[in-house]
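Human: Note token order:
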Amino acid sequence: MKKNLIPAQRRKLVQEYLSIHTIASISELSNLVETSEATVRRDLEQLENEGYLERTSGGAIHQTRMNLESAYDTRAISYPEEKLQIGAHAAAMIADGDVVFINSGSTTTQILRHIPKDARITVITNNMTAVSDLEKDVNYDILLLGGNLNKKVSAVTGQFALTNLSQVYADKLFFGVDGISPKFGCTVPTNSEAEIIRMMIARTRGLVAVVTDHSKWGVVSNYEVASLEQIHALISDDGIDQDAYGQLVSQSVDIIITHPNHGSSQ
């Protein structure tokens, strides 16, 4: 029986439940610890203050910290089919005549791989895969930003890259992140990549879209690049939780869900 648990016991149960399920509603947690929803809300407020979770309108999400930048090869083998479908859908949203910003990362690399070879577009990117991985017969224009080479993530960053970005505008931006949450927005682990994304957002005249698999929801990294209010769309996979869906819709974010192995829908 869980009745008459002291606050520390209730909060420990809530932490353990969220560590397994990632997301939970107030009613779920109230049933778990057999107490009122008002008491659960107070427990969640305390746990949020201690950095264990992030409250949402109807419950809470487990807060995962991602402080270190993982290597490109490590990212690429995580949810590969989901990233492929996300990239394919994002590429299909690019129209002839577009100038497009694309940042570094394994999901954004899939966008580059799915753009038709004969597309009449210009891609501006700090993603080194743009020159090392694409086939030689790609006919669309690729402007690779100069700057400091980060071999670990196959990207260029730094003041030289920022200066180049400050001289151009794009019609659309597709960027990947290491974490996304209602409270902390879109985050990445390094300031150098954060600066690139922020500049891309500032220089985009139209669509600003995040491309990321469902595992990034509830993850918080070191540097915020955008609040949810600053993005127009999120392209993700069908593993995203309904609570996450609701949180994003409440911020007027257009949610595009892709389905690995069988296309995509909106």
Remarks:
- Residues 7-62 form a domain with the Arc Repressor Mutant, subunit A fold (CATH 1.10.10.10).
- The chain has two domains: 7-62, 72-265.
